[in-house]
Amino acid sequence: MRIVSGMRPTGKLHLGHYLGVLKNWIELQKEHECYFFVADWHALSTSYEEKLNLKKLSRELIKDWLAAGVDPKKSILFIQSHIKEHAELYVLLNMITPLGWLERNPTYKDQLSQMKHKDIHTAGFLTYPVLQAADIILYDAEAVPIGEDQRPHLEITREIVRRFHHLFSCELFKEPKELLSPTPKLLGLDGRKMSKSYGNAIFLSDSSEEVWQKLRGAKTDPQRVRKSDPGNPEVCLIYDYHKAFSDEETIQKVVEGCTSASIGCVECKKWCMASIEKVLEPMRERRAAIDDEAVEEIIASGERKAKEAASKKMNQVNKAVFEISCEVE
């Protein structure tokens, strides 16, 4: 299948991004044709006031992808704003998308309530599902990897596709299906959502020393005051990290040691550190070997391939819209 997915360049990637997105991308690229893009226009929908250096952040994001194991020989990597056809299709789709569809979007309502500290009452934020639709259907994506909470967005995409086909009597686009992927929720070190803004995240680019300093101060079972007190792993944040990164043998040792009070929290955290390091250490080595020139070459190569597909599709779209002529290959 052809897969399309993107990430916004709003800061460093952390372990939550790795578990929720990158691990899945790395597996998908083994069997499918994958287009992975830096969604820099999408970043502006909520962060337009932050004066982000999106050029630098976009390249750092791609470095994180490469370090995690995304392979530019297997996947097409590019930056959204460099392919102007995304904007062109977005404008055309905006012309036919009913306002009610966007206003009823549950994610839109939810984010308005959660992000009251930001002024996101903008046209760009309201219509970002339309840009998302353009991102997907421009490349004839057959499937999009999403979490359960993103289902409404993909349904809007399919509705826009059906509306376009009805209005212009030309079936140019595929209706992408969801590729529901396991997106484990890894909480931050303080028990809240893992976020750069909360200062509770372990970043993929953190040094070994930084990882340990963060883990050492992480919350554990609040009822376990002394080492001699038996603990309950199910209410311990570190146990969640073990389940995400440790092997079965280590997890069993944690359960037995914690519930019997034969190990302390520091020892448990050291085991957790060792498991996380098995993931992060290879990433550090790969990242150190990536130079800026190589990143530019990867971007340029990916953009040539993305541009070819996007240009071809927009030629068909423009004929359908402006010439009432349907050409489907």
Protein architecture, described:
The chain has helices spanning 15-28, 40-47, 54-68, 85-96, 99-103, 106-114, 123-126, 128-137, 151-168, 208-216, 237-245, 248-259, 265-288, 292-322; strands at 2-7, 33-38, 75-79, 143-146, 177-180. It has 329 residues and is mainly α. The chain folds into 2 domains: 2-186 and 291-322, HUPs (Rossmann fold), CATH 3.40.50.620; 206-286, Tyrosyl-Transfer RNA Synthetase. A 3-stranded parallel β-sheet has the order 1-2-3. Strands 4-5 form a two-stranded parallel sheet. Helix 1 links the parallel strand 1 (2-7) and strand 2 (33-38). The two termini are 17 Å apart. The model has no long low-confidence stretch (mean pLDDT 92).
Terminal Cα separation, in Å? 17 Å
Tally of DSSP β-strands: 5
Do you know the CATH architecture of the largest domain?
3-Layer(aba) Sandwich
Q: What number of domains?
A: 2
Give a short account of the largest sheet. 3 strands, parallel
- Overall pLDDT score: 92
CATH level 4 superfamily of the largest domain: HUPs
Q: Strand order, biggest sheet?
A: 1-2-3
Beta percentage is 5-15%
CATH class designation of the largest domain = Alpha Beta
Instruction: Categorize the overall geometry.
Output: elongated
Rg for CA atoms: 22 Å
CATH topology tier name of the largest domain:
Rossmann fold
What series of H and E elements makes up the topology? EHEHHEHHHHHEHEHHHHH
How would you summarize what this structure contains?
With 329 residues, the chain is mainly α.
Helices and strands, with pairings:
Blueprint: E1 2-7, H1 15-28, E2 33-38, H2 40-47, H3 54-68, E3 75-79, H4 85-96, H5 99-103, H6 106-114, H7 123-126, H8 128-137, E4 143-146, H9 151-168, E5 177-180, H10 208-216, H11 237-245, H12 248-259, H13 265-288, H14 292-322
Parallel strand pairs: 1-2, 2-3, 4-5
